[in-house]
Specification:
Elements: E1 2-11, H1 12-15, H2 35-47, E2 71-73, H3 76-90, H4 97-100, H5 102-117, E3 122-127, E4 132-141
């Protein structure tokens, strides 16, 4: 097992396009449905695997392009260290003082290290200067506990 790190920062309005943050339903809308529904389904089928938006289910990062991976670690400690570094680097821009609290950031880092050591994914999100949102994710790979059928994006 190894871990991949992902980071996305962008406009909150773009993050709110949830249709592009989840895989399309396997069955297309029935024939005769409204053309805009059929078009939207086709768009999601084509775009979800390629779009850089954080998926609603963390494990689905594994079907995204490999160039979105910000780092890969064989040991959970290295992945947790990356996360701690990202939290420290972005904390001055967090929208609330509670999110910037060093004790809270340390607790998030410890919790993430514990979850990663047990083979679980970690996903955190923070508002930065409005209307920007930061998403940080660490995904366990080969196998992923939530979606063991998903292959490693680096293969």
């Amino acid at each position: 097992m190894h871990h991949h790190g992902y980071l996305w920062a962008g406009p909150k309005a773009r993050l709110d396009d949830e249709a592009l943050r989840r895989p399309a339903h396997p069955d297309p809308p029935p024939a005769g449905n409204r053309p805009e529904l059929i078009h939207r389904h086709r768009e999601v089928v084509a775009e979800f695997p390629r779009v850089d938006l954080p998926p609603l289910e963390t494990a689905y990062w594994l079907i995204k392009p490999a160039d979105l991976i910000r780092g890969t670690w064989q040991q959970s400690q290295g992945a947790a260290g990356w996360l701690s570094g990202q939290l420290a680097a972005h904390a001055p821009r967090f929208a609330t003082s509670a999110d910037r609290d060093p004790r809270r950031l340390e607790a998030l880092s410890r919790s993430a290290a514990e979850r990663l050591a047990r083979g679980h994914d970690v996903s955190l999100g923070f508002y930065l200067e409005r209307p920007t949102f930061l998403s940080l994710a660490l995904v366990c790979c080969t196998p992923n506990h939530a979606k063991p059928h998903l292959p490693c994006p680096l293969r």
